[in-house]
């Protein structure tokens, strides 16, 4: 038996707008003059909490792209092209400040799970470069959230308490809450969102003390099956 913390990737573990802007530049090749500037203005307003029509930066690019007449398959091609550049000079992203320290401070028994709608392309090299790949017990790509998160959370709940952490309520938190898991909202929408969540903060570093408190409580309450024990190292 073990508690699990299920993390989203973009906007949760990976921060910064470099990858979103790479996506926007790919769409701009098809959308024409002024598209990139519209994305940049809207993204700045979203980050400042002044724009509530969108879920995240990728949603901004997708919706503005559709408004500009870009077909869904063209948007998908642009997205995949941007993911191929993930973490490079054309699509820079940063590890969320405090992530390394948070993972190191979790109880040894706590399972760390990544569940993202993104493809695997570019993600694991980043996790390796950040030095955190070995601390993640399970990786789920192309998850198809929100619906695709449900079986992941259900399986984790069979092992013990679950905390789902992400920046989009509809995708990362609502499916988990529906199954009885705890939820943590992080990012630009955390302050203003009316969603009922277990905890919230603008950044992962600010959220970390609450996550750790949850994990230590869950660890203390999770029974150890006879003959299994807790793993000494993740």
Description of the molecule:
- By secondary structure, the protein is α/β, with parallel strands linked by helices.
- 44% of the residues lie in helices and 12% in strands.
- The chain has helices at 18-31, 35-47, 57-67, 72-84, 99-105, 123-130, 149-157, 169-178, 204-221, and strands spanning 4-7, 14-15, 94-95, 111-115, 138-140, 162-166, 182-186, 199-201.
- A six-stranded parallel β-sheet has the order 5-4-1-6-7-8, sandwiched between helices.
List descriptors.
globular, disordered C terminus, alpha/beta, two-stranded antiparallel ribbon, 8 strands, Rossmann fold, 44% helix, single chain, 234 residues
How are the SSEs placed, and which strands pair?
Elements: E1 4-7, E2 14-15, H1 18-31, H2 35-47, H3 57-67, H4 72-84, E3 94-95, H5 99-105, E4 111-115, H6 123-130, E5 138-140, H7 149-157, E6 162-166, H8 169-178, E7 182-186, E8 199-201, H9 204-221
Parallel strand pairs: 1-4, 1-6, 4-5, 6-7, 7-8
Antiparallel strand pairs: 2-3
């Amino acid at each position: 038996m073990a508690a699990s913390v299920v993390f989203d990737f973009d906007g949760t573990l990976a921060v910064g707008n470099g990858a979103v802007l790479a996506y926007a530049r790919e769409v701009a090749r098809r959308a024409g003059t002024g598209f990139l500037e519209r994305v940049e203005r809207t993204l700045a307003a979203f980050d400042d909490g002044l724009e509530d029509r969108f879920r995240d930066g990728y949603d901004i690019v997708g919706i503005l792209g559709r408004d500009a007449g870009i077909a869904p398959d063209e948007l998908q091609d642009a997205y995949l092209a941007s993911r191929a550049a993930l973490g490079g000079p054309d699509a820079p992203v940063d590890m969320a400040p405090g992530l390394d320290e948070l993972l190191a401070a979790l109880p040894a028994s706590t399972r760390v799970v990544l569940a993202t709608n993104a493809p695997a392309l570019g993600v694991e090299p980043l996790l390796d470069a950040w030095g955190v790949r070995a601390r993640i017990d399970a990786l789920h790509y192309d998850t198809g959230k929100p619906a695709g998160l449900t079986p992941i959370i259900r399986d984790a709940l069979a092992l013990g308490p679950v905390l789902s952490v992400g920046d989009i309520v509809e995708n990362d938190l609502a499916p988990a809450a529906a199954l009885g898991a705890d939820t943590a909202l992080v990012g630009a929408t955390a302050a203003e969102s009316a969603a009922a969540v277990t905890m919230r903060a603008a950044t992962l570093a600010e959220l970390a003390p609450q996550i750790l408190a949850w994990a230590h409580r869950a660890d203390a309450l999770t029974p150890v099956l006879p003959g299994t024990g807790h793993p000494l190292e993740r």
